[in-house]
Specification:
Strand order of the largest sheet of chain B: 1-2
Radius of gyration of chain B: 25 Å
Structural class of chain B: mainly alpha
Structural class of chain A: alpha+beta
Bound molecules: iron/sulfur cluster, FE2/S2 (inorganic) cluster
Number of strands of chain A: 15
CATH class of one domain in chain A: Mainly Beta
Order of helices and strands of chain A: EHEEHHEHHHHHHHHEHEEEEEEEEEE
Number of strands of chain B: 2
Oligomer: heterodimer
Order of helices and strands of chain B: HHHHHHHHHHHHHEE
Shape of chain A: elongated
Shape of chain B: globular
Strand content of chain B: under 5%
CATH superfamily of one domain in chain A: Rieske [2Fe-2S] iron-sulphur domain
Number of helices of chain B: 13
Amino acid sequence: MATVQLVTKVWIAPGCIVCDACETTAPSVFEVKHDDGTCIIRPAALDAEFTKPLSNDIVQAAEECPVDVIKFETIDVPAEQAPAAVTASAAAPTETQAEPHAPSPSAEAASAAAPAKASPHKPATKPKEAAKSMDPAVAALIAAATVRGGAAGILRAAGDVPPAVKGIQKLSPDKLPPDARYAKVLEKSKPPKPEEKTRRDWMVRVGWIAMGVGVGGPSLLGFQRFMMPNVLEEPDPKVRCGPLAKFTGMQPGDVNEDFKNTGRFWIVREEDRLSAVSIVCTHLGCIPSWLPNDRKFKCPCHGSGFKQNGVNFEGPAPRPLERFKIGIEGGEVVVDRSKKFLAMGPNDTAVWNDPEASIPV
Amino acid sequence: MLLLAVRETTTLDRLKHVVNSLCAPEYFVSLTVVLFAVALLWYRRWTKPAIAGTILLLFSIAYFGSAADPNFVKIITKPDNVPITMMIFLVGFFTWLALRLGAVNDERREKGEPLLEAGSDDKVLVWPDLVYTELICLVLCTVVLVVWAIVLKAPLEPRANPSAIPNPSKAPWYFLGLQELLVYFDPWIAGVLLPGLIIFGLMALPYIDKNPRGNGYYTFKERPFVITVYLFGFLIMWCVLIVVGTFLRGPNWNFFGPFEYWDPHRPVALLNINVSDVFWITLPSRYPKLCPWSPGLPTQAALGGIVPAYIVREAPGIALIGAYFLALPVLLAKTAFQKLYAQMGLARYVVFWLLLSWMFLVPIKMVLRWLFNLKYFLAITEWFFNI
Ligand code: SF4
Ligand code: FES
């Protein structure tokens, strides 16, 4: 009868090199604690009912662990009683998995428990011994890491652990109850008591503040002075465009480009009025060209298009072209660039009806 | 003889015409995406040196052979554009190299053989090995740059003059991808947010993806998802957009085929509409039964003036964007990304989704623009907030 193995208990023997592999495979069971230099079983996973459905992941994680420190105990159950998650992926039990994985003084566990004694080349040879049971990618990873000075790193990681873990490392793993180590690590990982404030700390803080004020204050003042120069050169916002008669010849739909360079606007004739339309694209500030044949303004930068009256209709520009204040002073058409009329959208051009925004013709 | 020549030109012209029409943006980008998918699916087959070499040969013939076309040669011989030719070949080469090594490693791994990198020792001494290598590189680079600067003159153009603007106005070649984004997004998104996300996203990658597989050796099979996502971002959303900006964008920023004359007077009508227009005007006028509201953009504030009119107007867009950025990740975390979510935890998943969603918003919006002339999902021009 087909049986399936379910994991009832999982724990980690000393020697973890904090490689993250197990957490990647079974994140709900393993938690890698880089600060403690080890990996723990999450509290929820200390429960057999929790681990059973995750059996496949746990077995896979144990196989992938480069130093083989993940241990687990299994029970055999008939396939039909097993949780669906385990049977679904049909992990056919292999010979090695069929052995009980109870803690045993195996060669690997012993060597992992005494990292200080292992020679630096030990991990380099290990993948070969374990080549059959180990994922070749991980084996290659270790081999590569070893050549690059990783062996020392592995040993250091295994040796540089909190004293509580060191104490456990001295014990043979089969003497340890599976959860004792977890309890000790947890106790060790509690946040340390806050240190008392010393006078030195106070001096340092005052020093930093003094420096901040000393350097920041004057620079702020200097910056502020810089932003307010004595002389500001700004062209006269008023552009005189000549007598009105100059523009009365324009037909509805015409665009006068005479002031594109000097005033940065076009004089545009709509049905019953003349207005001054800014030449700056409302998208990102390029200057569109007037295409008389297509009767539209077209921007060369990202392709925005505007109708003859400046209303945006293609491309990314969100708003129509802006308009300047226009009026007649002493018989002359004068455009005042200091006052703009912004329409917020193609359907939202009511501001242009302002008497200052156009000259009726 | 003459007849033959005439017939040849016509077949050639027909071929050019086919290429030109395939270079309409919707076809061009779909084709590159299909090519990308095929390249990753069959990465073991096409990366074999013989096949890859043939591809390179055919592509080079097509590319440099196209220089016989007067319009194409104008593009590739522009001094600004010389690096693009280099980019196309270099990016192709390195993509091939990485996939090839990954393919070899994946095969070895399946057979249980040691990987290419096993036992390799890439340590070198700083002095003399590294310093000498660096010195030689430095000298070579300087020589290449000096020669390049002498042979290909940097275009120094006349003083800026609003009545004589270059048409099209193109950014430096390496920014053409970003300039292409500006066609679809507001300046603050395309010019600030997206480049910022690219930079910070690349910096955040090591913290988002902590999976040690693939560290120190080439592979594709072990990390298909991450490699695909990364390459999509780099190849399609960066390199292909540069190619689009260089070869396919002409006067008035219209699309032109690579063999097409850049006619500034070619009429192209692109009447763009927002989601709000579709929802409030097109839908009710076309399907009055399904959408029983009267056509026309809402101009009244709702709920006694608490909700301003533009929020009512943009409600469909807000719902769409909200669903994409907020509801979709929750849905995915419960379904397709379940395992990913368990591995990442909330914080990393949020960052991951932020980056992924913005990256995919770009092609989504491009396709919608080309197919449906969609302008903005959300157009609150009152706040300069358009997505
Ligand atoms: S060494 Fe083993 S137990 Fe430690 S993190 Fe890696 S896979 Fe997990
Ligand atoms: S600046 Fe005019 S379209 Fe972008």
